């Protein structure tokens, strides 16, 4: 029972209920004596919010609440309690003086109608301002008692700081709208609807917006700047990511002045990871305008400065659209093309986030007008990157294969931005989205394969949208300025929450990364040792060449010769021409050769399938016009078949008679039911020339490969359409249009599958006759079941390491995507799958090893950033209000409190990570014991490597796979001392603090 408190409580329900009912009466205070003055007969008042339930007279209850004017008072009347205001009991709240001091010139609020919004409800208050000579302004008098005025002139409404803070946190945590909260306050004041409560909702929303802006400025230190709020720069009020590289804050001094070869070595540890994406749920209706509803923040946090942004978009509005690349046409299925944006001022927002830690970057978010136009995303990318001098950047974007190709040209030539010089930008596609891309992109832009990236998925920006989307229902109805300020506030709260959670999140990543590093490095070592040295040496050269230059052949992809139907038809026509030239061809028809007759027959077979699908699509209520069109197509097909049958008879004598014998039912007279009796079918009944069988085999084999390629491409498109629909499409109309698009793609998938099955069946018939059974074609062109028609990413409840993909993704060529067999590979192409798996095993070992080192560096940067922030706040302590001691004390106190908070965060992180260094060295296998020794203690010195290898960024210089062996660095070359590269103490999490065993590695909520 002790561990089931609810069961215990259930026995006491009557007792609890009785106590609640007892509190409806006077309890032990049924006498009429006042607890304060002892007067008999006047003790009829009590306070709901005070701790005691004693009864007081009217004078005493008012006197006791001089410093608590917002408590809720009840009066015993008619045998029950009724609510009554302190104002009606004569309590006057005097501002400008300490409680109990008399004001000789009190000034009542305008019309003696003053309302205060508090956490407990909406209160009417009898308020007197101080009118004495030298008195402060009315708004100042309110602020000094922690009441926020709704207007700056003759305020008649105020909100308590406590209420504003309460709603601020509540709205960020639960995404509660202002209307819902205000309604709650009104119902807390009167839940019967019988009392008239003064409407202060517009004033409430105004105060909330002003409060959020002031808190933003205060937390950012703008009140400590001698130049004032007007000097606030773009993005300077954003909460920064402490784990990302922040020059002059958490990087070693002089890092940017290091020699070129040394900067090359440090590049991957200090590179900046960003993600781009758009969100079409955070739209805004055409409500209000900039003149009526300007933004208070206007570019100082996360949303970009609106005026400059709009001017840029107007200047680039007439530029020709970007041409799409070889990859799937992703822009064609963006939400902007599915939904009508005529009634929207903004169809969504675009953003650039920190990719590894999920922070919103400063000055990185802006409204979209129609889809993810390159101009919008270009501006947001440049806006945020202008705020950092980090020259090495890794960017992920779901359309990186298209967006990144001409980025430098757009920046330099189209927009005239010359600030990009000297920067290195690498593109990748997030792991979830890459499944919808063609195989070439899956090889070139994969975070699994690209070197020196660590282990992350690039989808943090997608997870961020999940936290922001609940605000869509309220922000879509806001004016332009209100919405941008509200989003700024939400993004800032999200960032601060991540700052607080960084000790736990980085610790969890490290607890995952170390075992994975040990496992995959050990697995790669065993795999590598089991293969011939000459092969692994060649593959190492190939993968290092690709890592250094992505235009080199990609060793992760398996390249096979391409067979297409068009190429085979061309080849057969060339053979016909050669036979005619040599006089070997018997001319049976002036327009048709045997190969063209077969090609025409296969085309007619496709027309039959299409016509059958059209007939199946006719429902019982189809119009006469629709039926007439289908009948016309059937008649046309019949005429084509009759003409072809006459030609076929010349090459396969007796085929017309045999067809007549087969067509015994009326349904077989339909155009799509008539058997064509191509050689693969006719040979069962008639003598067919072997040449015809060989020609059909060639055409069918090419048809099968073509159909498989079409099927894969359509499955990729369907997968992407489903992703777009699930992420962005809302509403019945948009869903209907989206499902119509998906249904159209599904129809094409079904047709491609039928075409493949037909080709594969024909090959199965021809194979024994032509002696093809020993060629192994059945291992590649297998029977296609419905369950095989799935995307490579569609297996449920599987991960990258356990997924079993459909066979259609395993055996096909990549040459059509621009891949060429690497040097030396053509003669040993049978090793290509082994090479691909070796490269993937090597990549896994590299990525997890990089991840451990990056996490160590990020932990160090977090500690350095908190220390820098603490020192910065201490520097600000006496930076302003030197001539006003009362203001200076508050300014100094706030700065010191912020410095104390930063040092507390640093101390907490150090404690959470106190055993990380030992944990990184912890291994569970003799084979991997040397990993840590090699990585942490016995790596070669930087200078000697730099002399021999600089300035190369690939190859032996950064070949992390050599961590796999105990002493054999020859597996993949030597490694620089990556730990010492960052700085002399870059990866030391706490000076002298890394003591104790791995047993101390615990979750942050236990610390």
TrEMBL record:
Top-level taxon: Eukaryota
Record region (Disordered): 987-1007
Protein name according to UniProt: CxC2-like cysteine cluster KDZ transposase-associated domain-containing protein
One Pfam short name: CxC2
Domain called CxC2-like cysteine cluster KDZ transposase-associated: residue spans: 86-193
Organism: Polyporus arcularius HHB13444
Record lineage: Eukaryota, Fungi, Dikarya, Basidiomycota, Agaricomycotina
Membrane-spanning segments: none
InterPro entries noted in UniProt: CxC2_KDZ-assoc, KDZ
